[in-house]
Structure formats: structure tokens, C-alpha cells
Amino acid sequence: MRAKEQALNIHEVARRARVSTATVSRAINRVPTVNPKLSQRVWKVIKELGYYPNTQARALVSGRSRIFGLIVSELTNPFFPEIVQVFETIAVRHHYEILLTSTMNDPEQMESSVRRMIERQVEGVAVMTFGMEEALLEDLKLRQVPLVFVDVGPRRPRVSNLRIDYLAGIRQAVQHVAALRHEKIAFITGPHTLKSAMARKQAFLKAMHEIGREPDMNLIVEGNHTMEGGQIACGHLLALTKKPTAILCSNDMTAIGVMRKCYEDGISIPRDLSVVGFDDIRLAQFMLPPLTTVQMSQAELARLAFDALLAEVEREEPLPEGSEYVLKTALIERESTAICREGAVLKTNHPAPIRTVG
């Protein structure tokens, strides 16, 4: 009988590899004490047979699920797919699976996600939501499951924080538009309920003070990190008597909404208005004109999150105040920003070319 017609199980693998089922089990669970030659033989047979080990059985034998949870806000936001893809790629390389869930910013959805992860006995959870109530994760903390947060995690054992250096990139953005002779600089924030959004707003205010400018609070409006929110916020700014000549946005989705509103109103970017985003999602470089933005590498964020979880799982004794990792940001200059025409003495009607990166 051909191999594919036989029952594919651990006993058949053991028979063909000429080892015991215990050796097969240890090889599958990558127990370091197993003989490397035997392990290689076992995996060769596994590939030949197309055998897929029972992950639940493996968990029972090893006491480990080899599953990491990954929680994101919403998969429809272009910021998150690259995080998911990179996180999963690294996980597979380290023989981990991921349990992915999106909260849609709904507390009940978050509680359901946490419950599923407890049931699956995840070894760690990366909470990539840029703002989450600590009480919702109490069950995971009580079970001493390693956690990774972006910006908002408490300093406690088995908790890792990925700190985003918002100021560095936003400072570059403010200095960039100021160097282009813009004085009426607006900022569209994210939701004030998100700590990350407030951190970006504070970074903007500090950067303005650093260049000796007093921020005009009428030019700071709240958005919601969506394209629709960007359109609405831009409408408020354009309705002002003293309209801005440059708008900085808390994320790229907001900036894309601003660009859409300007298109609808016949406002030329960057001739009439300069626009800067934040995140550098892949779509940013394909906008017309390509969007100048502050880059926060999604790939690097995913790598840091996985490395933090893996380090915590492999750590024998947890650090008393957890771990902290820093993600740098930097301005990527494209074509949505140009010299301010308002009050400027120019020899030509065309703005000076701006260096494009990326």
C-alpha cells in the first residue's frame, strides 16, 4: 500500500524512521537532548509522508502550546497587515503559530479575544492596538502570560513595552515645514481617548516650542485616525479665517482624508497646502502626490514584538519591572510638501523641488 494511502500517525513515522515513538515525539517538540541525527531522520520521514503533527497532542506532551496571540485594532487599516505578515513570518521561522484577532476598538470584542487566547493556552500575547484598558487583560496577567504593549503597558514582570519615539519624527516634520516658510501649521490629532494619539499631539506641541513658535490652538483639531475623519477635520481647518498653509496629521489615513478633501475643494497639494502624515503605510508612496510622512516601521514593530515575547518565554526569572524597547521614527520627504507661497517672494510660480526618499 502506498504511503499516502496509509494512516499517517506518529507510529508510522517511528516505523519508517526506525526509532521509537518517544523519539519522534521529542523530535517534533524540538527537545534539545534528542540526538541530532535521529531528529534529522525523523523530520525527513515527516516530510516524505506529508505528516502533520497534532499540535494539541504536542502541547500535552511538551506542556507548551507554541502559540503566540496577536491582537490588532482592525485589519482593514493598512497599518496592520504588514505587522501581521512579518510577525507570522518570524513566528513560523521559530516554529510558533499565531492566534490573530482584531478588536475593532470594541471592549466586548477584546474580552472575547482574551478568552479565546486563554482557552488556547497561548504562551504570550502582543497587544498592538495603541491603547487598551488594563482591566481587560487581568486574566492574562493572573496567569503570568507574557505581554507586549505599544506605549501603554505597566512596568511589571512579564510585560514588555514598545516605546515609540514620536518626538524625533514629528520634530523633523515640524522643522521641515518651518524651513519651507510655513507659519500657519495645523495638526490633526487622533482620538483623545488614545494615549498614543495624545503622545503625538504633545510631540507636535513640544516641537513647535523648540522652533520658537507658539502653537495656534485653533489649528489643532481632533480626528479619529480614519480617512473620513481626516476629511471632516480638514473641512474645519479650511473654514477658518486664518487657514493653515501646512497640515500635519497623526496618521497617514488622516492625511489621505485631507488630500481627498483638498481634491474635492480644488486645493492643490503641495502648491496651495502642504500635507504630512505619520506611519508611512505602503499606500503613502502611491498617493498623488506621494505623501511626505513620518515613518514608523511596521516591520520593525512586528520584529520587536516577537523578539520581546520570545525573550520573555525563554527567560528563567522575569525582570521585576519588565522590559522596554524603543522604536525610532524619521521623516520621509516626498512630494506633498513645498515652499509656502503665502507672502513668499518667489522668482517662479513653481515651488522648488523637494528631495524624494523611498
From TrEMBL:
<keyword id="KW-0804">Transcription</keyword>
<keyword id="KW-0805">Transcription regulation</keyword>
<dbReference type="GO" id="GO:0000976">
    <property type="term" value="F:transcription cis-regulatory region binding"/>
</dbReference>
<dbReference type="InterPro" id="IPR010982">
    <property type="entry name" value="Lambda_DNA-bd_dom_sf"/>
</dbReference>
<dbReference type="InterPro" id="IPR028082">
    <property type="entry name" value="Peripla_BP_I"/>
</dbReference>
<feature type="domain" description="HTH lacI-type">
    <location>
        <begin position="8"/>
        <end position="62"/>
    </location>
</feature>
<dbReference type="Pfam" id="PF13377">
    <property type="entry name" value="Peripla_BP_3"/>
</dbReference>
<dbReference type="InterPro" id="IPR000843">
    <property type="entry name" value="HTH_LacI"/>
</dbReference>
<dbReference type="Pfam" id="PF00356">
    <property type="entry name" value="LacI"/>
</dbReference>
<dbReference type="GO" id="GO:0003700">
    <property type="term" value="F:DNA-binding transcription factor activity"/>
</dbReference>
<keyword id="KW-0238">DNA-binding</keyword>
<protein>
    <submittedName>
        <fullName>LacI family DNA-binding transcriptional regulator</fullName>
    </submittedName>
</protein>
<dbReference type="InterPro" id="IPR046335">
    <property type="entry name" value="LacI/GalR-like_sensor"/>
</dbReference>
